[in-house]
Amino acid sequence: MAGSTVEPKLIDDGAVRGDVPSGAATRAVWDAVMQGAVEVAVRAYEHLAPPQRERVLEESRGLPGPSRASLVEVLRRARDFEGAARLLEEDGSHALAAPLHEQAGALQKAAEAWLRAGERGRAAAAFERAGSLERALELYRAQDARESMAQCLTRLQRPLEAATVYRELGNAHAELESLRAVPPGHPRRREAVLRMSALLDAVGDSWRALVLLADAMQESTAAREDGALQAEHARLLRHLGLDETPAESERAPVPPPDGYEYLKAIPIFGELPMQDLKDLFRMAQQVLIPADTTVLEKGARGTGLLVLLDGTVDVFSGPGLDARLLNTLGPGAFVGEISLILDGPTSAHVRSRTAVRALRVTRVDFQHYLDTHEAAALRIYRLFTESLAERVRALSA
Asked: Which UniProt keyword terms apply here (predicted)?
C-alpha cells in the first residue's frame, strides 16, 4: 500500500467505516495503520484536533479485530488512554481497558470495567479511590475484606461500625483510633469512652485512659453524673495509686506519645494532611517483639515500616557474629520505610536489644493506602524521590 491513499471503497473490506473524503485529516492515520507503521500513525494521531480524534474512534467501529488492535496500540502510545480503553471496552476486553481508564484518571470508569471483568477486589479499590465509598463498601462486604470494610466505614464517618469490625479483627489499635472519632453528644459517646478506656488500660496506658475519662466527664452535666464513667474513673485512680480527689487526678502527668507524633515526624509523611495521616495511623498495628529477636534480616525482602514506641534495637552491618554495630535506636526511631515503596532486599540487620513495642505498617497495607489516597500518594512519592536524590547527591560528593 506504499504511496496509496485510503479510498471509500476500502469500507467494503472492513478497513474504515463511513466515507473518508479525499484530503481528510484522518487519512494519514489510517494510511499508517493499514501499512503497519505504528509510530507514523502515532505522530499523525497526535497532530489531530479533538474532533478529528473522535472521528478516528468512530471510524474504527468497522475495522476487523487485528486492525482495531493496531489502533489500540497507536492510541496507547499516543497517550490517549481513554480512547484506547473505549475501543477495548467495545470489544469486551474489560480487564485490559480498566488499567487504561486508571491511567487516564477516569477512576469511576475503571471501577466499572474491573467489575465487568469479574475483578471485584480491584473494582472495590477503584470505587474507593473515585470516592464511591458505598459501592466500594458493598463489594468489600461481599468479599469479606474486613480491613478494607473498616477503612471505608471510617471514611464514611461511621466510626462505631468501623470499630466493631476492627474489634472482630483483633486490631485494638485501629479500634481505639476509630472510637476517637465518636464526637461529644453522640448517643453512644458513653459506650465509646468506656471502651477506649478499657483498651488503653489493657496496653498499660492507664494514665491516658484517666485523662480521657476526665475530659469526657467535662463534656456535659449528664456525663459528670454518669455512674459508669464515675466508677471507671475511680477504678483507674485506685489502679494508679491516687486519691479519689479532683486535685489528685488533675496532677496526672501527660501520657507519653502513642506513636501518632512519631509517625507524623517521618520525613516522607511530612506533607500529609491530618485526615490522611490519621487514616495511615489507623492502618498501623501495635506489635510486641521480645528481646534479642531479629527485627529485620539483611538481604531479605522488606516487609514494611516499624516505628519504635518502647525499647531499643541495634542495627548491624550483617547477621554474623563479626558484624559491626552501626547504630542503636530507641523510641521515635523507625526502620524499613524504604520497603514501603521499593520492593527490594533489606540493607541492614536489626535486632532488638530489649523488649520492644512498636507500630507496624506492612507493605501490603501501605500499597492499599496509596491506591485509595491518591493525593497523599503524590505527596509521599515526591518527598521520597527528593530524599532519594539527596542521598545520591551525598554519595556523589
From this structure: Ion channel, Ion transport, Ligand-gated ion channel, Transport
- Which has the closest alpha carbon to 151: 183, 120, 178, 112? 178
One-letter identity of residue 202: A
Q: Which set of grid coordinates corresponds to residue 276? A: 490522611
Q: How would you class 245 by CB atoms within 10 Å of its CB: exposed for 0-12, middle for 13-18, buried for 19 or more? A: exposed
Helix (H) or strand (E) holding 313: strand 313-316
Domains parsed from the chain with CATH numbers: 8-116 (1.25.40), 140-249 (1.25.40.10), 265-396 (2.60.120.10)
The whole-model pTM stands at 0.75
28 vs 303: CA distance, rounded Å: 51
Cα separation of 246 and 217, whole Å? 12
Distance CA(139)–CA(132), nearest Å, equals 11
Nearest to 165 by CA among 141, 188, 185, 142: 141
Cell numbers given for 90: 467495545
Instruction: Give the pLDDT confidence of 301-335 residue by residue, as tens digits.
Output: 888 999 999 999 999 999 988 889 999 999 999 99
